[in-house]
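Session log. Operator J.P. requested a structure for one protein chain; no other inputs attached. Running the standard single-chain path with token output.
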Amino acid sequence: MKLRPRYIAVVVSLIMSVTVALLAFYSRPNVAVTLTFAGYTNDQTGLYTFAIFRLSNHTRHIFACMQGPLEVKSQQGWLEDNEHTGFQHRPNLEPGKHMTITLLSPPTNKIWRANFVLHKMTIRPTWQLKIMGFRWQTTPNTYLIRSAEIGN
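Structure written below.
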């Protein structure tokens, strides 16, 4: 049986198209979570200024989000404010969803940035749930996400 050149060209181009599509799909970055500064707001008394952030999850994973240190720029470098570090923002960040986070901001005449720690969550299978008694488990996959510089 003699193969026609056009048939061979179609098969080869189909194989190459599938290969390129698979490479594009599997070469996406592991963590595609974006952090956007949305602006400032005041409390009802006007005494405190809060910064508003939007954290968006563009992955198929669930993340627990914890507050990292706020950093204020000085002549010596970045100084960390750890007063609220470790505070967990609820609910967990679901795939394809976003959350709005409000933080007490440093003085607005300073250059500063916010940090958040994301812990990738996994759901245990039902048999592990019966043995362990809890469904969620954090994996060693922990990521730091930092805002752009804010102020001045």
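Operator note: Residues 29-146 form a domain with the Immunoglobulin-like fold (CATH 2.60.40).
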